[in-house]
Predict the structure.
Amino acid sequence: MKTTFLTILLLVISINLSSQTLIVENKTWNIVNCIGWGGCWTESYKINGDTIIDQIEYKKLLRTNDTTLTNWGFFGGIREIENKVYLLHSNSENEILLYDFNITIGETFSSFYYDCPIEFELQSIDTITVLNGEQREKYNFSNNESWIKGIGSLNGLVYVGVYWCEADMYYDLSCCFENDEQIFQSDNYENCFIYTVGVEENKNLVNHKIFPNPFTYSTVIKFDCQKNQNYSLEIVDQTGQIINSIDEITTGEIEIRKENMSSGIYFYRLYDDSDIIATGKMIIK
């Protein structure tokens, strides 16, 4: 009887510990991105399969802006070892420390957001109950940064430390799924997918993706293009100033070259004849 009880107890502990692991298969994160001067969209991330990069084994981290969750692109390699999570972006040669769940209160977490140094102090750890009833530790840092064990940053899985490095952009984890079961829903949203332009929902947003992103010399936006339809594109800096525009676009591929733009974060707005149909962010290295 005692042996049976210990076996069941160990099984329960094992299941609970595995659920606290951040980087596992069949997990999906939806993240709302909003531009301060107007417009929001949702991007999704998932773990799917393994890859070897420079003789190191990673999980594949995929991303999409498609609400049908069909057009996934490779974002980078991600791995978790002894409660530390590392990310190697597809356009970077250097792996970064994304999370350290071994950190204790009063210690400082130091790493990089892309090439931008980040640093913030762990101020407290409390416990929350997620949607499936499990208890998860919540790490509360300075500078608007919070992590949930097994879920990640409340700014979004890959946006740890974003507010050290970006202005006029806002990021929010809207929901998280494990094995097709929703385990987290942000109090800020009723739905997992948010797409708006200004305050009115844009019904005409098209499926699109930009790759590579970040980029050094050029990148390409691909979108669902309708025949006999002209499109235009605006590129906007973080102050909201239009710094470049492309008119009379008639194909579903738009190449954007760095040219006179300096390294940094920019936003694009794709228009049809009458409205904004897609928005997004791009980073020039």
